[in-house]
Design goal:
The chain is mainly α. Helix content is 79%, strand content 0%. It has helices at residues 6-16, 18-26, 30-53, 59-82, 88-111, 121-141, 148-180. Helix 2 (18-26) packs parallel to helix 4 and helix 3 (30-53) runs antiparallel to helix 4 (59-82). The longest helix has 33 residues, at 148-180.
């Protein structure tokens, strides 16, 4: 193992951590799930800091890091939705948006040009809102009481940022695809 591999190892461990988080949520061990979810969040900051500060970025890290983040968030949404803690319609909106983005990115990458994706500001805001919502919902289940209006506001903010960022990705990348044209197979 080389020092420059540490961020990738941390990202891989965060991806593996999805399994115990799911198990803890399904077992109604919300306090432990919250602790592991928080630890995953801290590890995301640590691997990002190490990669940027020491120049340890890699193509693998560029894939593993967002994959681990997205897997943890989407799977938490699915589990919390199945437990009735997040509305199913919101879970469907979040998952559908991600499927549209991934499908569009694959299509663009293979039919237009190699994709050099970077998240938009609204997409970053959407991720932040999703994270805060998951933490808030798990805190409520611990129970660590939060004002009901806070969770309700997070739910509707999450829906709004999910829809706006999804539409933005479709519009921006469709326009880029039209400008560049389709590659011959």
């Amino acid at each position: 193992m080389r020092l420059k591999d540490i961020p990738n190892i941390i990202s891989a461990l965060r991806l593996i951590a999805v399994i115990p988080v799911v198990w803890l949520l399904l077992s109604h061990e919300f306090g432990w799930a919250l602790a592991l979810f928080a630890f995953a969040g801290v590890s995301d900051g640590v691997d990002g800091f190490l990669a940027k500060h020491y120049g340890w970025q890699s193509r693998l890290g560029g894939i593993l890091d967002p994959l681990a983040d997205k897997a943890l968030l989407v799977i938490c949404f699915l589990v919390l939705g199945s437990l009735g803690l997040i509305p199913v319609w919101l879970v469907l909106a979040v998952v559908f948006r991600d499927l549209v983005i991934v499908g569009g990115a694959l299509l663009y990458n293979y039919r237009v040009e190699i994709l050099e994706a970077a998240p938009t500001r609204i997409s970053k805001l959407n991720t932040l809102v999703q994270l805060v919502l998951v933490v808030g919902v798990i805190m409520q289940a611990v129970p660590i009481p939060l004002p009901g209006w806070l969770i309700e506001t997070l739910i509707w903010t999450c829906l709004a940022t999910t829809l706006v960022s999804g539409v933005q990705y479709v519009l921006v990348w469709s326009a880029k695809a039209r400008r560049h044209g389709w590659r011959d197979e």
